[in-house]
Design goal:
The chain is an alpha/beta fold and 342 residues long. Helix content is 51%, strand content 16%. Strands 1, 2, 3, 4, 5, 6, 7, 8 and 9 form a nine-stranded mixed β-sheet that branches. The longest helix is centred in the C-terminal third of the chain and has 35 residues. It is globular and about 70 Å long.
Length: 342
Amino acid sequence: MLATVRVPGSQFATIVMPALNEAGYIAEAVASLLPDESAIDYELLVLDGGSSDGTPEIVAKLSAANPRIRLVHNPRRIQSAAVNIAAETCDPRTTVLVRADCHAVYPPRFVEKCVETLIREQSSSVVVSMRAIGRTPLQNAIAATQNSRLGNGGSAHRRASRSGFVDHGHHAAFDLGTFRSLGGYDESAPYNEDAEFDARLIGAGGRIFLDGNLSIDYYPRSSLPALAKQYFRHGWGRANTLLKHGMRPKLRQILPVLLLLGCLASIFSWPLTRWFSLLLPTAYVVACVLWGALLAVRQGEPNLLWMGPAAVTMHMSWALGFLDRACRTGATRFLRLRNRSA
């Protein structure tokens, strides 16, 4: 049986914020996240992976005003390593590990409520839902896409959700003993470390509680190239998790892959089918554009016309990342079998 935080009362929380070039967001995130010192004892560790945009200097100023905030170097750079380093080096009094993002704004008493939920539900971890928001017209459109079924496929933690036990969600808090006992995040896979950890947690008999009352605001990428890079990594990481644990993809995860393969097959059939080969790709792009146009008209926000391009970018990048990881894994396994038979 996995250890969990079971006794109400005095708890010590270590809040870990992985950071890399977050000068535009980190001060707002920290300000929204800091707990009331009279409610819970805590430390906030910013694990910086080598920022060059002034992020360390901002954190240094925050630390001067509040010594509970500390800047810690993350030589391994990736987010999973940042959380693992925090779990290894946190205050000896720590019982709860809270993972926080620089690209987010947190509701009042977020840390305190995460700890309360962890204890009340006797769960191994607490996850939350998230709502994307934006600062610029394009970022607003990307956020609207991520908030819609067109962008999230109905994922529970990507929309306002009812509370209950789930198999995955946006990571918020862990019982430190449980996190350590499972070896923390898998650093061999730089993406999708949260879902991979949840698969091991559930397999070990742990329980994950989605607190539908704790929704955070998240700032998505603000350009289409950055969005494409992020979703390529999401797809790569999801394929890696599925292959590692022998899991079946959900329909919303496999649909982008089928769409990409269908569009490619249609285009390559041009010598045989001519204009008919463009039917599927055209219908798909038009459907995404019309979705955005309809919402733009309905809400009176012209910037939502960018939802179509954002959706296509997210779907196709995710599918490319998924196929890249799946194909590389298949090729590696083939070569291993070939070498054994040689």
